[in-house]
From TrEMBL:
SMART domains: BRCT, HhH1, LIGANc. Its cofactor is Mg(2+); Mn(2+). Its EC number is 6.5.1.2. Keywords: DNA damage, DNA repair, DNA replication, Ligase, Magnesium, Manganese, Metal-binding, NAD, Zinc. The active site is at K116. This is DNA ligase. NCBIfam families: dnlj, PRK07956.1. PROSITE patterns: BRCT (PS50172), DNA_LIGASE_N1 (PS01055), DNA_LIGASE_N2 (PS01056). It comes from Sulfobacillus benefaciens. GO terms for cellular component: cytosol. GO terms for molecular function: DNA binding; DNA ligase (NAD+) activity; metal ion binding. Zn(2+) binds at C410, C413, C434. NAD(+) binds at D34, A35, E36, Y37, D38, S83, L84, E114, R137, E171, K292, K316. The lineage of its organism: Bacteria, Bacillati, Bacillota, Clostridia, Eubacteriales. The keyword Ribonucleoprotein does not apply.
Amino acid sequence: MTSERNDRRIQELRDLIAYHNHLYYDLDQPEISDAEYDVLMDELQRLESENPNGRTEESVTDRVGGTVNPAMGIVSFSPPVLSLNNVHNAEELQEFYTRVTQVTGDESPAFTCELKIDGLSVVIRYQEGRLVQAATRGDGLRGEDVTANVLRIRAIPAVLRQPVSMEIRGEVYMPRSAFIALNARREHEGQGIFANPRNAAAGSLRQLDPEVTASRELSAFFYQIRHAAPRNPALSRITTQYLTLKFFHEVGLPVEEHFRYCETLEDIYNYVDEWERQRDSLDYDIDGLVIKLNDLSKQALIGETQKAPRWAVAYKFAPEEVLTEVLDIEISVGRTGTLTPTAILKPVRVAGTTVSRASLHNEDILRDKDIRIGDFVFIRKAGEIIPEVVRVEKTLRRDNTIPFRFPDRCPACGSAVVRLPEEAAHRCTGGMACSAQLREALIHFASRDAMDIEGLGEKTVDLLLESGFVKRVDDIYRLKEEDLLALPRFGRLSAVKLVQNIESSKSRSLSRLIFALGMRFVGQRAASVLAARFRTMEALQQASYEELVDIPDIGERIATSVITFLSQPSNREVIRNLRDLGVNMNHVEVAGTESPGEKVLEGQSIVVTGTFKILPRKTLELWIAQLGGRVASSVSSRTDLVIVGEKPGSKLEKAQKMNVPIVPEKEFLEQMTKLGITPPL
Ligand code: IVH
């Protein structure tokens, strides 16, 4: 990869990881599995280490994870509550082993191996044997005080069998059986269900009301002493990790029973092999194993990095791959005419969700993998949220299967299908005359971020196409109440409303209209740049390729697409009709400001944090982008402004420390209104 592409990928990964951290740690609502998260993190770590310039002092790879909910009371940790580095195969495990032997000077160090519980990390303090404080790990430096909640978990003793004072670490989890029962109950009661046991555990523990925690079946395992009262004879006898676990058991703390003392690397490999095979045999989720140098004084000698100890690693299990059958290969036609093959699968569960479709992307991928209808294939969800076909299990292939052939006619309209030499995709040449393309184009045109016509969603679009009232995008603006009343499921009220919504969409901004037209590669940002630069649709239609590529942010790809789209007679006709029907084609000037109203935030890097009351956060972010600003995910020295809502997170503190201007949501909206810019309420 070139270094520019590397940099871009690094930024993309950081943003993605920050996003998934937020979902996982703050909202307890992950969209991807831990294995998928690790794939992203590993790629980022690799790119950062290959490209030291790409490292900044604030990379997500250094951080332990989530933030804390200040409403819960905050506990500070010293030393920080660390995470673990990961290894994924025997080779990486051996590298870890060799490093430990080198640093300790011990040729054959012993290890204690444990199961890695997929739960929620907690830190608990016992004083004279009494539980006095419990906290979640939070971001590793500060966690949430969950003492009252933890006291309601039966598996965690409030009083130990010996009056020891120590701070310990463990994992709170929800047994699989309890998770299934809880979700069944919640589904029955019409409440949202938890994605997996880890989330259920986190959601149950991070509660302001301990009664909620008490009503959920949670359990815990403990594995580390973080601090021990000095001169306690019982504690000073604990010189190894193995003895730590034995001691916990003695004093009544729950310990995961399958830990093992391993004298050699061979022993560790055996432990890994055994558990790789039996990982599903327990009533709790494990996502790997933890290999810890046994001798605690040697652990102290080796020390830790900012994020993780050097004396331990997590051996992470490979992402789950599941075998299933390809029932069919379906071709769908997108908004821009791209034909996409999708494998229709016999439904299977993969990494926590049921999968019944997987995109096969394009002909090349399909041909390389030689996927045929009737084949048995392995499915996984690695790196992305989207399931993918890894490979065909050829030994199971039946005799009568035939290689899949891409159609040469569009399955929706019968027009010819072409594949341009420089493209991987096949494209239908039917344009708006293709019902599938028209359908997607209409849905996009009316969508929230485009012309925002409420009530004109997929279902209504389908009805309008079936009835023949709409044959082109501009036909939307010719619809009358009577037409809508003739459609099934339309009453007078909904017909009146939709016609009103269509009418009021005529005054949407030029940038929305440009975006709504659905030119390839022209997203919201490019659309707003084009609107601000050309100011009228007419001027945009007359723009030359050179003028377009001259604009910062408009590359060759976008310029070519704009020129191609606007030179097509059928598209020109649609635009002419839209104009005649009264759709706004001008960039609106804002009274009282010198600068073009829509670009007052040009070049500004803005961070938003907290819960927003006046505008939904997404709307606020889009609006900032429309005003020319860039919404950044984290505060840095380049941040120009931080807009805060209620319950802001650590970003606020960081902004305060770095002296970045901070404005509350309400004040920001007021300032904009003073400039004559109306918020998109
Ligand atoms: S040792 C400095 N042991 O896995 C000690 N962690 O991915 C580091 N975990 O943050 C942790 N089971 O929350 C350790 N037997 C175990 C574990 C375990 C689960 C969690 C822990 C840690 C995460 C790292």
